[in-house]
Write a structure and sequence with these properties.
Layout: E1 2-7, E2 13-20, E3 27-31, E4 42-47, E5 56-62, E6 65-71
Antiparallel strand pairs: 1-2, 2-3, 4-5, 5-6
Length: 75
């Protein structure tokens, strides 16, 4: 997996995971914002490289204020 950012159709940056889909060189893109609990107030805008333990850090906004975030893997 690769963590990073991508632009959506509105030109906004979103934090994403790129995952190989198992068919050749194709990748699946997962918007990490879809993994948040509704109403969190967060917009995840970028993700930095994922480490071997599966931890991802990134930047975004919380309540309209720029902030850093960390995502820990779940079993």
């Amino acid at each position: 997996m690769i963590a990073g950012k991508a632009q959506n159709s509105s030109a906004a940056y979103l934090a994403v995971l790129f995952r190989p889909n198992g068919t050749g060189d194709a990748w699946t893109v997962l918007d990490l914002n879809t993994r948040l609990n509704g109403g969190s107030g967060w917009v995840l805008q970028s993700a930095h490289p994922i480490n071997e333990a599966g931890v991802i850090v990134g930047t975004g906004t919380s309540g309209g204020v720029s902030a850093s975030w960390i995502a820990l893997p779940t079993p």
